[in-house]
């Protein structure tokens, strides 16, 4: 194949994420609600019967399904299903920056408002409870940050003879910041805390 043939074959393609077909895609909503004329963020506590991360605090959302038109629709659908409200009650939905996780996930977060939060009836199969935190708390509070270090352990038959340095090869070790917000008796950490920090940074950067 000649170079012009290569260029002709690739020139009209739209770039995407390498290996995207091997990732699970999720959409998440950061819900804003008005309580006593003050803006709050709404959180869920995952049901203790859930297979993954039971009892953790999260935002509404979940894995995209085949019927979802796009990520935004997936975030609205999941929010409505988990909170027992209609999709029409989810308004002003705006995308934030998406996240590609080394653990095989692509996460697209949104922020939006919920009308009539008093009508929420959580789906008990997925949601143990819901609670809210005033937005000003996150605007005024920095998260606690702790380091998580990853160790490289090649499998037993790893071909050291094929790489420069062999068994003495200096692997580049990863370090992860794990964030924690504590509000009253609630601990918000993990992905939810990362999305919170990103959300707050965007608010300040757009001010």
Automatic annotation (TrEMBL):
Its cofactor is Mn(2+); Mg(2+). Residues 22-156 form the Nudix hydrolase domain. Pfam families: NUDIX. Transmembrane segments: none annotated. It comes from the Bacteria. InterPro entries: CoAse, NUDIX_hydrolase-like_dom_sf, NUDIX_hydrolase_dom. GO terms for molecular function: coenzyme A diphosphatase activity; metal ion binding. The keyword Manganese applies. Keywords: Hydrolase, Magnesium, Manganese, Metal-binding. This is Putative NUDIX hydrolase. It comes from Virgibacillus massiliensis. The lineage of its organism: Bacteria, Bacillati, Bacillota, Bacilli, Bacillales.
């Amino acid at each position: 194949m000649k170079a012009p043939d290569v260029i002709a074959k690739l020139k009209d393609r739209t770039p995407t994420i390498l290996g995207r077909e091997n990732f699970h895609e999720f959409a998440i909503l950061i819900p804003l609600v008005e309580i006593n004329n003050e803006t709050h963020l709404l959180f869920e506590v995952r049901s203790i019967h859930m297979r993954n991360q039971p009892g953790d605090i999260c935002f509404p959302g979940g894995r995209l399904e085949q019927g979802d038109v796009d990520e935004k629709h997936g975030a609205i659908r999941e929010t409505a299903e988990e909170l027992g409200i209609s999709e029409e009650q989810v308004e002003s939905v705006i995308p934030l920056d998406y996240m590609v996780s080394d653990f095989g996930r692509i996460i697209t977060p949104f922020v939006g408002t919920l009308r009539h939060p008093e009508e929420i009836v959580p789906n008990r199969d997925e949601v143990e409870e819901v609670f809210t935190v005033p937005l000003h708390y996150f605007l005024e509070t920095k998260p606690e940050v702790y380091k998580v270090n990853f160790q490289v352990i090649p499998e037993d038959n790893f071909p050291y003879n094929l790489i420069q340095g062999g068994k003495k090869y200096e692997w580049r070790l990863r370090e992860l910041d794990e964030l924690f917000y504590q509000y009253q008796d609630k601990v918000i950490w993990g992905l939810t805390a990362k999305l919170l920090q990103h959300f707050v940074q965007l608010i300040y950067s757009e001010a």
